[in-house]
Amino acid sequence: MELFLTYTIVGLVLGSVYAIAASGLVLTYTTSGVFNFAHGAQAMLAAFLYWQLSVGWGLPVPVAFLLVVLVLGPLVGVVLHRFLMHGLRDVAEVTKVIVTVAVLLGMVSLSQWVWDPTEPRKVEMLFGNSASVELFGVRVRYHEIICLVAAALLAIGLRLLFTRSRLGVTMRGVVDDPDLLRLNGHNPDRVAMASWALGSGLAAFAGVLVTPVAGGSLEASMLTLLIIDTFAAAMFGRLQSIPRTFVGALVLGLASTYLLAYAPSSWDWAGNVKTALPMIVLFLVLLVLPQDRLRGAQVRTRERSRVPSVRQALGWGVAFVAIVALLTKVADPLMHGSFVAGLAFAIIALSLVPLTGYAGEINLVPLSFGAVGVIVAYHVGIVGSGLASRMGWVGLLAGTVAAALVGGLVALPALRLRGLYLALATMAFGGLVSTLVLTEIHPRSWFGWEGAIFPTGTIMVPPVQLGPFDLDSDATAMIVLAAIFALLGTGIVALRNTGYGRRLVAMKDSPAASAMLGQSLVRLKLGVFMLSAAIAGLGGILMAASAGSVSTDAFMITASLALVMLTVVGGVGYVSGALFGGMMVGMGFALVNGTFRDLALTHDAWSPVLGSMGHLFAVLVALMGITVNQNPSGIVHQLCGGYRPLLRARPVLYVGAGVAALLVALNLLGVIGDWWLAIALFCVVALTPVLGQVWMAERVLPPEQLEAHAARRRVLPVERRGLDAPMTPEERYDLDVALGLPPRPLPSHDVEVALAGGVPLKEAVRG
Amino acid sequence: MAEHPLLQTRGVTVRFGGNVAVDDVSLDVAAGTITGLIGPNGAGKTTLFNTVTGMQRPSAGTILLDGQDITRRSPARRAHLGIARTFQRLELFLSLSVRDNVRVAGDIAKARHGRSFDVDAETDRMLELTGLTAIAEEEVAAIPTGRARVVEVARALMTRPRLLLLDEPASGQTEHETEEFAALLRGLADTGLAVCLVEHDLPLVMQLCRTIHVLDRGRVIASGTPAEVQASPEVIEAYIGQEVVA
Fold it and tell me: Using one digit for the tens of pLDDT, what is the confidence trace for A87-114?
């Protein structure tokens, strides 16, 4: 009985911490419409800050505690809302998810920069690990009592806030109708900011409390992935109801404690199941949630995708393979491996183009589906032994099919629901793969089959052999992978040009209208998700086989998140975006880190600065993700878009090409090194369109923009504005603000339409 | 004409919490006619459309299509049975051109119309019929609202429906566009299509519809020919207000 009480208290304490974190998550989600994937990362950062203040700098514990929970935590929330989240109300779900994922990655990179992850750190309980009282014959520590009391007070406090206080009532109003709230004289932005401050404060609180409860050692990735446990709890309340979230959190806390306590000692996997329990529960909750009601789309996507024809795609594909073939001759052979890795990741990233780019659905863990492919291919597909062993086409096929089937199983429960739920389900699946599948490194008996799923934690995957192509040599692998990428890319473009592709895009733009036309949304989403998982599986096998061996680290959730984020940054609607994302993850990080490490070794005086450049790069990459809302079509597309008008201004192109040729010549003569060449070429590529706009503006800029430029130069007296010249978006914005109307800066597109004399569609839609 | 009307709603009620948006509505829409549905804002017209198309489950009542109970069918299934609609708040596929907006409806419908349904030819025919050929290659996001409403109608017609529900199709249209649109609707009704029209442009409704139902605060307060409806004291009260009548 005493034992049971002890376990119950431990479970309740864990549940209380979950509840504190989950209520913060629900609070920000319901009031701002942004599901904060960085909630766990905020908790992590708070825990590290608390450690720094109390242990690192020796501040008294209460001071450190209050500083982190009451000042720094909420401050982070205010900053996030002010600079990122408040612009995200009407944007596509993908953009919202990617921005918070970028914040997550940025916070993780930042913490690894500041706090070297190889050093162990311990956090003691509040009042120390031994301070305790005896209750009903059970020893309860003060820290645990604080957790329980804090959660109880929070439950009551939030209840009072929402029912009694003016702020809480307006918070509920923000969800229902922000415009109405604005008309009633409230500022929905300020309300949302308050909720972000409160939510982030709660994340910080949970972060500081959870570490000692979970064992005491600070670990960035574990704390960051607290987000999965948290949203599993929040799922009990459909991400809306705070009381039900509390119930869910306590159920999770108790269930995982009892599981570990009462599982027979022969169940050596009970610990892993305990870690995975929230994810399992999440899938169970998804199964019982009622179907979402179809609503009109509130989101108006801002991207305008130009769809290439199959012939164009084929042309680009051939050119791409030719360039890669040329690179195998020119580039340093030591670089071939990096290129192969980049191409393999690009194939995995390609899985996101039909799914996210066309259909608007999100898979946050493509690498986990890659892991499924790798495991199956490893067990069934290796032909021959020793150095002569190869991965045959049977392995590739089996792994690809397995990934597709698993993808279907993962997606099925979430498909009846909104896109966010699918994103959450995939992340939970990523957690399941990490905690339950990739931990199976020792042999055991599986329904008659003896062996380990992922033997020793690092498996050797031999090179792929496809008919006459043996990918044993890196140069061949480069060309074959480039060809596979080009083929798949062309296939995806061809798909977009079929009725199926149009149906995918139609579903993204308006699920309601496509359902009304007779489209079964579940079937369409299931099909495209399986296709996407299959491509990810194939890419995973190619990645593992070309690297020779692959360890469990390769499939970490954060690596998946980085790949997804960079693909969206590159432009997830385009094959080129996948190439960008894959190259950055497979090649960019390794190269940049390697280069700076080498530089640090050779330049002693600068080594601290150079050593931190790799970290700086990681943080900067995360910053790219944060800006995705400004440029939803992707930077590759933007870059290409800058070149299109230059066809009318050839001299600019000649100058650009000339400078590039000069740089290559200097490199060949040995005047500048490879790195300087790469950096300089990058600058030339980025700056040539700008040169065109400055030098030959009248040929490059569209007439509307030229007119706008001219209008800006003419200074109009105030009273003539809007009469002699059309109002600029800025003036319209000022006018809206002055009149107390919702100030929405219009994207340039609408202005063009207005200038052309038509009524902008978006305004009509909003009306 | 068939013995029973194509669409029948029987005692349909929709409650949102304590709010009754649609209250015990029973009305019919016959094939080959244009039926009008009018009423002040918030009368429940769009909510009624949503229950007919399956976007909203009614709290009570049944919906019959050609005598068959479809109350519990999914939206996609109802589309297969021949219901199509347009939206008051436009729901166009903003990344697609005008032509592809129409064509994708054919892509979806092809599954049930079989191989003989040539999507491209059908799209061309529909663009021609609705007068959209000239702007077929434009981005749908860049065309004026009046035209956009016609795109929604063309898209709905691509599924070859038996019942077409139009939610304020004339709002945003110029006078000239409305005239063309009225002629299009008449032609469609003559081919046997049942059209149900929610519209605030009363002259248009009076001119087009054989039967008009008037909704106010979720209830049908009058039904009949345009002349009967215009003479109904309840309708005048709902539209003009109590004091004036009293």
Answer: 787 788 888 999 999 999 999 999 988 8
Domain ranges of chain A: 2-288, 310-627, 649-700, 703-766
Neighbours of A2 (CB within 10 A): 10
3-state secondary structure of A185: coil
Provide, as residue numbers in chain A, all residues whose Cβ is less than 8 Å from the Cβ of B59.
Answer: none
Q: What is the CATH number of domain B7-82+161-245?
A: 3.40.50.300
A111-115, A712-716, A738-742: range with highest mean pLDDT: A111-115
Residue matched to tokens 């989403």? A525
For residue A20, give the amino acid letter. Answer: I
**d(C-alpha B76, C-alpha B245), whole Å:** 45
Whether the per-residue pLDDT at B167 is higher than 60: the answer is yes
- What is the Cα A186 distance to its own chain's centre? 33
CA distance linking residue A300 with residue A694, whole number of Å? 33
For chains A and B, count residue pairs whose Cβ atoms are closer than 8 Å.
122
* Distance set, CA A597 to CA A173, A340, B119 (Å): 53, 22, 59
Q: CB of A647 within 8 Å of any CB in chain B?
A: no
Yes or no: domain A2-288 corresponds to CATH 1.10.3470: yes
Give the model confidence (pLDDT) of A479-502 as tens digits: 999 999 999 999 999 999 999 999
**Best mutation site among A517, A755, A762 for testing chain B: the one with the most B CBs within 10 Å?**
A517
Contact A522/B at CB under 8 A: no
Answer for the pair A206, A24: CB distance below 8 angstroms, yes or no.
Answer: yes
The two tokens of residue A408 are 């279907």
The amino acid at A11? G
**A290 contact B CB<8A:** no
Shortest distance between the Cα of A350 and any Cα of chain B, in A, equals 20
User: Which residue in chain A is spatially nearest to B79 when comparing CA positions?
Assistant: A518
Q: Does residue B14 sit at the A interface (CB-CB below 8 Å)?
A: no
B244: exposed, middle or buried (Cβ count in 10 Å: 0-12, 13-18, 19+): exposed
A519 touches chain B (CB under 8 A): yes
Cα–Cα distance for residue pair A522/A359, rounded to 1 Å: 12
Show the beta-strand stretches assigned E in A181-227: none
Q: What are phi and psi of B206, to 5 degrees?
A: -60, -35
Sign of CA dihedral A355, A37, A427, A31: negative
The nearest CA of chain B is from the CA of A51 a distance in Å of 49
d(CA A302, CA B139): 13
Q: Does B141 touch chain A (CB under 8 A)?
A: yes
Q: Is the pLDDT assigned to residue A128 strictly greater than 70?
A: yes
Distance from CA of A409 to the nearest CA of B (A): 23
Domain A310-627 class in CATH: mainly alpha
**Residues B151 and B101 sit within 8 Å (Cβ to Cβ):** yes
Task: With beta carbons under 8 A apart, name residues in chain A contacting B55.
Answer: 293-295, 512, 515-516
In a mutagenesis test of the B interface, which of A572, A761, A762 is the best target, namely the one with the most B β-carbons within 10 Å? Answer: A761
Q: What is the ipTM of this complex?
A: 0.92
User: Could you tell me which residues come within 8 angstroms of residue B88 by beta carbon, excluding any fewer than 6 positions away?
Assistant: B46, B167, B168, B171, B198
CA-CA distance, A286 to A418, in Å (whole number)?
A: 11
Is the fold of A2-288 the same as that of A310-627? yes
State yes or no: pLDDT of A580 exceeds 90: yes
